[in-house]
């Protein structure tokens, strides 16, 4: 099942209403499907990238079946001082 991912677009003014905003990080735009018995991750070009994000797929098995998430898959690393960073 392929879907078009939601892509950001430039605007001159932020929308009003009950919106949430996220910090921009460089990652991989991904749609995640939690089915009855598995998880599938798809890139913005409709390529199956589940094998590339195995840790994310395993963690997503805790979600209830039927959940679909559209977002940015990002790797964070912890430094010795406890701070995190994107590689």
Automatic annotation (TrEMBL):
It holds the Pfam family DNA_ligase_A_M. Residues 12-78 form the ATP-dependent DNA ligase family profile domain. This is ATP-dependent DNA ligase family profile domain-containing protein.
């Amino acid at each position: 099942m392929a879907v078009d991912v939601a892509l950001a677009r430039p605007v001159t003014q932020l929308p009003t209403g009950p919106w949430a905003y996220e910090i921009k990080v460089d990652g991989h735009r991904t749609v995640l499907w939690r089915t009855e018995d598995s998880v599938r991750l798809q890139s913005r070009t409709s390529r199956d990238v589940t094998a590339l994000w195995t840790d994310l797929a395993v963690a997503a098995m805790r979600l209830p079946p039927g959940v679909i998430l559209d977002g940015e898959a990002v790797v964070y690393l912890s430094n010795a001082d406890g701070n995190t960073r994107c590689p």
